[in-house]
């Protein structure tokens, strides 16, 4: 009795799934005991194609056509579907869509007047519940706090002079020392600001912002801070006070 060779096929097969409806690809594992009809039902959930109108084509690892799965009652294992082959789903009832190209998606446009008339918007919800800027009492309180804070900054600035030695403390940044070079309003932020010439290159500019100059110092030696972040006094350069001890 001669030797017998038994070919054992794995019960599960890993395949790549693509569809004519979009450019996505999924890697899935299927039981070879599935009928083609059952396979279509699962592919419907994966691709969005309709099981009743889809056709299935099998391609090898090099994307060369192998066969078509045309018999819904046949088992998947009866076809030449091997590891890492690709099953391409074509749905003849639907037009392919390219979800990667958003320029082809029709945009919903609404005028400001139409938006204001709707009752299902965030704006309508805020107005109805008097939240955010539509809460007149809260908005008034916030405006008063902002005005009071700005007045405090202006009062602090009125006590300072150009040439004052100072120490600057801004949350999240190292303490810096320097000299006040500018006091007043700036074009890039509201309110009163101080222009500082730092003792060390720990600043952000050279005394100018956006092409407009307020004072002149070497690059990285200049910066702008609010008066509340600045204290004036006898602040020698850091390091010099240690040398005097």
From TrEMBL:
<dbReference type="GO" id="GO:0005829">
    <property type="term" value="C:cytosol"/>
</dbReference>
<dbReference type="GO" id="GO:0005634">
    <property type="term" value="C:nucleus"/>
</dbReference>
<dbReference type="GO" id="GO:0007021">
    <property type="term" value="P:tubulin complex assembly"/>
</dbReference>
<protein>
    <recommendedName>
        <fullName>CAP-Gly domain-containing protein</fullName>
    </recommendedName>
</protein>
<dbReference type="InterPro" id="IPR036859">
    <property type="entry name" value="CAP-Gly_dom_sf"/>
</dbReference>
<dbReference type="GO" id="GO:0005938">
    <property type="term" value="C:cell cortex"/>
</dbReference>
<dbReference type="GO" id="GO:0035371">
    <property type="term" value="C:microtubule plus-end"/>
</dbReference>
<feature type="domain" description="CAP-Gly">
    <location>
        <begin position="184"/>
        <end position="226"/>
    </location>
</feature>
<keyword id="KW-0143">Chaperone</keyword>
<comment type="similarity">
    <text>Belongs to the TBCB family.</text>
</comment>
<dbReference type="InterPro" id="IPR000626">
    <property type="entry name" value="Ubiquitin-like_dom"/>
</dbReference>
<dbReference type="InterPro" id="IPR000938">
    <property type="entry name" value="CAP-Gly_domain"/>
</dbReference>
<dbReference type="GO" id="GO:0031122">
    <property type="term" value="P:cytoplasmic microtubule organization"/>
</dbReference>
<dbReference type="GO" id="GO:0051010">
    <property type="term" value="F:microtubule plus-end binding"/>
</dbReference>
<dbReference type="InterPro" id="IPR029071">
    <property type="entry name" value="Ubiquitin-like_domsf"/>
</dbReference>
<dbReference type="Pfam" id="PF14560">
    <property type="entry name" value="Ubiquitin_2"/>
</dbReference>
<feature type="coiled-coil region">
    <location>
        <begin position="127"/>
        <end position="162"/>
    </location>
</feature>
<keyword id="KW-0963">Cytoplasm</keyword>
<dbReference type="GO" id="GO:0007023">
    <property type="term" value="P:post-chaperonin tubulin folding pathway"/>
</dbReference>
<dbReference type="Pfam" id="PF01302">
    <property type="entry name" value="CAP_GLY"/>
</dbReference>
<dbReference type="GO" id="GO:0043014">
    <property type="term" value="F:alpha-tubulin binding"/>
</dbReference>
<dbReference type="InterPro" id="IPR045172">
    <property type="entry name" value="TBCB_Ubl"/>
</dbReference>
<keyword id="KW-0175">Coiled coil</keyword>
